[in-house]
Amino acid sequence: MTLPLRTATRYVTPLREGGSMPAVVEADDDGLYVLKFRGAGQGPKALVAELICGGLAKALDLPMPDLALMELDADLARTEGDPEIQDLIKASAGLNLAMDYLPGAVNFDPVAEQPDADLASRIVWFDAFISNVDRTARNTNLLMWHRRLYLIDHGAALYFHHGWDGDASGAGKPFPLIRDHVLLRWASRVAEVDAELVSRLSDDVIARIVSEIPDAWLQGPDTFGDPATQRAAYVTYLTQRVARREAFVQEAMRARA
């Protein structure tokens, strides 16, 4: 995974459904993107989680909009009348994260839609792996676009890294909150998909994904060491979580049972 670098040229509209108030923006390639702001309430750690989890999802061949790094100029705030949006743009000047905008996509409805067992199992496995607290019936973070399911919004995953000192000893912990996963009822093949998913997550693949985290997102009061030290800690945690995955796999199977 090598993320393209884009520059935001126009702020189009806010997406107020999200707590961090992402926005649709136009970029220098004339494409539309959903921009996640570094200056939002969750801070750059949310962007780190988005980048890592998005890269892992792509490595696992899970359906997800393409990601890009996005340069944002504080001057874009001058054309916005909303002071909250102005402040958000100014606080996020520099490098942010964006994903392709899917025009016409609708939120996944677990009553109207029934994903197949294989895809549901893969997504449940993935969310248990990344400790994603945000794929519930109340907040599915799933879209339907051209009759296909898409994963979005992973800023709340990897929650262990808030206030983290780099300790990877918790990598083998189960993820009990998987019991609330919106797709759990259809995830009957978690054990069967496990080996194939793990085969896609080699140490080299994980290291390449983590290497793309910009230095600017690894600085500030909620960090430890220099950016290289932090990247190494993420790689250690994720590779150990793969190696010690039995706990979260078994937890998911028990939750469904």
UniProtKB/TrEMBL annotation:
GO MF annotations, alphabetized: transaminase activity
Protein name as annotated: Aminotransferase class I and II
Ranges of residues in domain HipA-like kinase: 14-242
Organism: Pseudoxanthomonas japonensis
Assigned keywords, A-Z: Aminotransferase, Transferase
